[in-house]
Amino acid sequence: MEDTKKAIIKTLSFFDLFSFSLTKEELFYYLWQTKVEREIVYSGLAGLIDSKVVEQKNGYYFLRGREEICEARRIKLLESELKMKIARSAVAKISCIPFIKAIFVCNSIAFGLASKDSDIDLFIVTSTKRIWLVRFLSNLSLLLFGLRRINLKSVQNRVCLSFYVDEENLNLQNTRAMQEDVYLVYWLATLLPIYDPENIRGKIILANSWMKTILPNLPEKLSMYIKEVKNGLVKKSLKIIFQKMWHGGYGDLMEKQAKEAQLTKMHFSVQSFQNKAPGVIVNDTMLKFHEEDRRKEYYERWQAVLKNFKFPISNVKPGPNDQCQNI
Fold it and tell me: pTM of this prediction?
C-alpha cells in the first residue's frame, strides 16, 4: 500500500506542475510505475486524504492546499474544447492529403491545459518515404486556409505542424530528453486521434511497449469518446488515386524535391539544423521542430516537489541496451 501511495503522490505532483487536478479514473490510468487493482489505488487515495496529504473537490484530486486548481482545470478544459473545434476543422482540410496515415492533437490541448493564447499542436504520422512531401503539402494547405502558425506573434488558435514521424518509426524511446522523461510518457499517453482510420494510436502504444513499465494501467483504447474526422467518398477516392500515382519513382522524385526545397528554406543543412536546438530532429523518418524543449525543466521541477515527500524519485533502471538521445 505504501508503494501505491508513493505512486499516487508522484502522479499528482507531475500534473500539479500544470495546475491540473485528476479524477479517480485518470489517476488510475496515469499511475506512475505501479500496476495494481483499481480498488487498491482508491484505498490508497482514501488513506492519503485521511492523512491530509491529498484533498478532493467535486470529484477531482490534488495535493493539499491546491484547491484552486480545480477551477483552473474547468476553465482550461473549456478552452481546450473550443480549440479542439478548430483542430477538427484544420484536420478535415489536410486529412485527404496523400500519405497521411493519422493526425493527433498533442501537448497543451491533449492534456486539457490550453489557455486562450495557446496554439494547436498536431502530431502527424505519414507513410514511409513520404514524410517530406506530406510536410510540404500540409503546411501549404493550412497556409492557404489561414490556419497555420507562421511566427511567434501569430500563435493564438493557429495550427502548429511541428512533429512528423513515418509509420515504421513509431517508437519514440530514443527521443527521451533523459532516462525518466516524464513529460514524453504522458505526452504519448494523451495523444488524441482526430484522424486515425487505421488505428495508428494502437500501433503507437504497441511500438512504445516500454511505456507499460511506467504506466502499466494505461488502456489500449481511449476511455473517453473522441470525435474523429472522416473523409467523404470523393476525398477518400482522390487520396487513393494520388497515393497510387505517387507511390513509385515519380513519388520518390517529388519526395526528394520537397526535401530539398524545405531544407533550402530552413537555411541549414540537416546536421547544422539538428545541432541548432536540442528539441529538433531532422531526418527522413522524423521531423521534430521543438526549438523550446522544456522537458528537462519539467523533470527538475517535478523532482523538487517530490523531495518534499522524503522518498526516492526514480525507480527506473536502464537495461543493457537502453539508450536515450539527448535532444
Answer: 0.88
